[in-house]
Amino acid sequence: MDVDLNELDRVLDGARQAPLSEEDCEKIKGALHALAARLEGPRNTEKTSAVLPAAENEGTDSTIQPGLNSASPGHGRNGADAFSGARQVAIVHDTLKHGDRCPECGQGNVYGQKEPKVLVRMVGQAPLAATVYSLERLRCGACGQVFTAQEPEGVGAEKYDEAAVAIIAQLKYGSGTPFYRLEQLQSQLGIPLPASTQWEMVQEAAELIKPARDELIRQAAQAEVVHNDDTSMRVLRLAREPSDERTGVFTSGIVSTGDGRKIALFFTGRQHAGEVEVLLANCLAHGRRQFVEVAANFPDECRYVLNMLGQVYGHEAEARERGLTADQRLRFHQEHSGPVMDQLHRWLEAQFSERKVEPNSGLGKAITYLLRHWRPLTLFLRQPAAPLDNNIVERTLKRAVLHRKNALFYRTLNGAQVGDIFMSLIHTCQLAGANSFDYLIELQRHARELEANPTAWMPWNYRKTIADVKAP
Question: How many Å apart are CA 254 and CA 324, to the nearest integer?
Fold first, then answer.
């Protein structure tokens, strides 16, 4: 709706004398909606069609953009197959079995169906449940001997079992729930669990499962591609050398890919990501984001750049869908993405050489960023398996950011290292499609076997190892 300021002034002046007409009301409403859209907060997507309105004679941009997953709409409910961690109970028919005569018609036989009828029932409980056993005691009136009832089988000698430690670690380092919040929740539910006790439990468990993290480090070092980035972190008690002038503390995230597996690692300390690993390629998504941020002021120029980069990401998606090898992917990008990037490079240089863009403007700085980092940004055109961007590790670092947001800090460097161990194992399980809660339980239960052969206790093979151990 096109409404100029003079017309809006006329409508508002008329409103002082008489109620607004239907037409004038729609004009005011349209203007307010347009203003709200203009002043809305940061966009939750960087897709070109969301950043820039479609140009004339140009349809909606359907090019695949980096870091976006277009989820199809649904009802939000999960099928029974999604409950992989639920207790499974098989119930047979109480009166019929396979091959029996049909009780309804009396002529045919009944046969078992491939798919049973499934019912999912969920109950609520505290994250850590507890059972209090009251063992009856009897005392002899003559000799004073006390006789105590035997505890049930399977009670165990420890107050907290492996599952209790695993759920605390999962909530703290996997979901960002600070110890004190879990303490409050448990107290409200009548099962108190002090924050200090929670820390002692995860600290002791970290020593047991540390060989698994160390093996992940060893295997990550042999991967084809290593992504890394960092985020700031706070450690309250951090001893520093007198000659150390650094004041910053970082959590570096590393994701290695190779052999069809992804490994996530976290390291907290004074070193930043560039010192943990050597960076060979820059993130193309970072360069793209420079243009997203100034798109409102330079729509035509930014649309051109975003569409060109969108073609490259479209080629990457096609290569992934076709399951190309690293060498095949390289040749595919050289054939299809190479000409696009060459054309974009010439256009970027022309903006300065032909004085079309002021170097100190927002657009000029975005162009300068791309040109300055052009060679590492285009490593995917020269090196097999080189990634286009660093989005995978940026998503991984959200786990550390969530911890910083909710818990604010680590008290000591030792506490940070315990967090690094659990975050590394939990997020690697997520990347491998493994149940991190179950994995942490089994690592504790098989601590000796883990220490002797950590290679057999990785998230992608520990279930097979357990089956082999149980086999006669």
Answer: 24
